[in-house]
Recover the amino acids of this structure.
């Protein structure tokens, strides 16, 4: 897709490339949804509304309101951490999940869903125990890890982002 060129008049052809891994994420500053290319996450994309950076090197909070757009609507793989603030094991898993987000910037979107604040999504996916980490690919659940299984989760992620 591009703007037609007219080489006889000295115009050059301008092309627009399609996003490789489009994702829709909510700006943590102004809450505006933004569609960005995950593959360009290292370029530090900015919110189209407030201009602040969309930080993809850490887990993004997702709720009942934007789960379908962010997780199920993503072409890129998404790891979702279902957790609650009061949960001790969830607090133990959090640094591990943060590391996954940091180590896989541009290849994997990492999201967190507070099951107390977003009960509809938790119920829809049958989350009965937390922490539960669910890996989505093409908007569909492909794997689930309940509790803290770091080695198993690393192996699954390696297969998905390879």
């Amino acid at each position: 897709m591009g703007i037609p060129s007219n080489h006889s008049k000295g115009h050059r052809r301008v092309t627009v490339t399609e996003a490789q891994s489009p994702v829709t994420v909510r700006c943590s500053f102004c809450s505006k949804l933004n569609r960005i290319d995950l593959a360009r996450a290292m370029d530090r994309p900015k919110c189209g509304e407030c201009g602040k950076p969309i930080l993809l090197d850490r887990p993004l909070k997702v709720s009942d309101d934007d789960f379908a757009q962010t997780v199920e609507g993503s072409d890129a793989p998404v790891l979702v951490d279902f957790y609650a603030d009061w949960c001790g094991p969830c607090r133990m898993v959090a640094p591990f999940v943060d590391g996954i987000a940091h180590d896989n910037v541009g290849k994997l979107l990492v999201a967190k869903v507070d099951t107390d604040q977003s009960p509809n999504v938790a119920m829809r996916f049958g989350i009965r125990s937390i922490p539960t980490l669910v890996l989505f690919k093409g908007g569909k659940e492909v794997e689930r890890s309940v509790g803290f299984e770091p080695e198993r989760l690393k192996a699954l992620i390696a297969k998905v982002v390879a």
Notes: The chain is about 25% helix and 25% strand. The longest helix spans residues 88-103. Confidence is low (pLDDT under 50) at residues 1-19.
